[in-house]
Design brief:
By secondary structure, the chain is α/β, with parallel strands linked by helices. It has 2 domains: 7-151 and 306-320, Rossmann fold (3-Layer(aba) Sandwich), CATH 3.40.50.1370; 153-304, Aspartate/ornithine carbamoyltransferase (Rossmann fold). The protein has 12 helices and 9 strands. The strands form 2 sheets. The protein has a 5-stranded parallel β-sheet with strand order 7-6-5-8-9, covered by helices on one side. β6 (200-204), α8 and β7 form a beta-alpha-beta unit. α3 packs across α12 (301-320), α4 (106-114) packs across α5 (130-137) and α6 (153-167) crosses α12 (301-320). The longest helix is centred in the C-terminal third of the chain and has 20 residues, at 301-320. The protein starts with 8 loop residues before the first helix and ends in a 5-residue tail after the last helix. Bound molecules: N-carbamoyl-L-aspartate.
Length: 325
């Protein structure tokens, strides 16, 4: 791939996009160059989102289908807005209103959609691996918008983009991810990506929320105590407890959990001056994050949301490569 000039952002939009894969399924294996190219494009796209007329002709005539088999607010709206702001025709499809609820298999649903010749299918599914299954069978590009507890690459990319905007080069920085690591596709994708970008990732969680072998399989360490790390973190990423994925409770009480693992004003005050607090949303106020912190000066939760739209516009651009005009 040709190197992209970080000094001339427009160069990214003119440059060779061949370094980008056809599908975006995982953060594992993304190159630093591909990520930097994406960030340069996302910075440009964010400016478009702040304009009065928030539309580019780049993906005019292209078709994107967003296929969501699991609930979503920000990811789904973000992908829809991103596609529309790039000028594409965007169709949203959710499992509850579809033939999936009549017993159609994922393979048949996918083949049906593919026969309509879309350019990109964005898929969220409760089963880990579903986006790979589709990518092998469809002729269009596939983006993983979250597959079970496995991966959520666009969330990690928007997180890393937000991090780099706030704390600069991630090489050598310490990112602490706190909470329900066991059920978090956000954590898994972030661990892969942050490792590629040179950051150190420490997962903080009760023992019951770290799967056996997790830190052997992924480039991260586990620590049971948030207070031990708070003064040395460059960023803290709080996670929601995903009760919908639990067969049994993994801790005694919300109050107990908040006291040991919650981000409260006392802990936030002990962070280094430059450190930021992140959350992929949806937040559970008063459980993993205190309302005063969620709305406080260190929280960048809404920046993450704004950056998410810009980053997904940039992904559409890099995967589909524009209209050729
Ligand atoms: C996350 C998800 O769905 O994995 N949310 C998101 O996409 N912004 C995390 C969560 O649901 O807690």
């Amino acid at each position: 791939m040709k190197p992209v000039s970080l000094i001339d952002p427009k160069a990214a939009l003119r440059s060779d996009r061949s370094g980008w894969p056809r599908h975006l399924l995982s953060c594992d294996g993304l190159s630093i160059e591909a990520v930097e190219q994406l960030f340069v494009a996302a910075r440009e796209m964010r400016l478009v989102g702040r304009r009065r007329v928030k539309k580019l002709p780049t993906l005019r005539g292209r078709t994107i289908i967003n296929v969501f088999f699991e609930n979503s607010t920000r990811t789904r709206v973000s992908f829809e807005l991103a596609g529309k702001r790039m000028g594409a025709d965007v169709i949203n499809f959710s499992a509850s209103g579809s033939s999936a609820s009549k017993g159609e298999t994922l393979g048949d649903t996918a083949r049906t959609l593919d026969a309509m010749n879309p350019d990109l299918i964005v898929v969220r599914h409760g089963a880990g691996g579903a986006p790979w299954f589709l990518a092998e069978r469809l002729s269009c590009s596939v983006v993983n918008a979250g597959d079970g507890i496995n991966e959520h690459p666009t969330q990690a990319l928007l997180d890393a983009f937000t991090l780099s905007e706030h704390i600069g080069d991630l090489n050598g920085k310490r990112v602490v991810i706190v909470g329900d690591i066991a059920h978090s596709r956000v954590a898994r994708s972030n661990i892969h990506l942050l490792n590629t970008l040179g950051a150190e990732v420490i997962c903080v969680a009760p023992r019951t929320m770290i799967p056996a072998g997790f830190t052997d399989a992924l480039p991260a360490t586990w620590h049971p105590c948030l207070d031990d790390l708070i003064e040395t973190a460059d960023a803290v990423m709080m996670l929601r407890i995903q009760r919908e994925r639990m067969k049994q409770s993994l801790f005694p009480q919300d109050r107990e959990y908040s006291i040991r693992f919650g981000m409260n004003p006392e802990r936030a005050a002990r962070l280094p001056e430059h450190a930021i607090i992140m959350h992929p949303g949806p937040i559970n106020r008063g459980v993993e994050i205190d309302p005063a912190v969620a709305d406080g000066r260190r929280a960048v939760i809404l920046d993450q949301v704004e950056n998410g739209v810009a980053l997904r516009m940039a992904i559409g651009f890099l995967l589909l490569g524009g209209s050729g005009e």
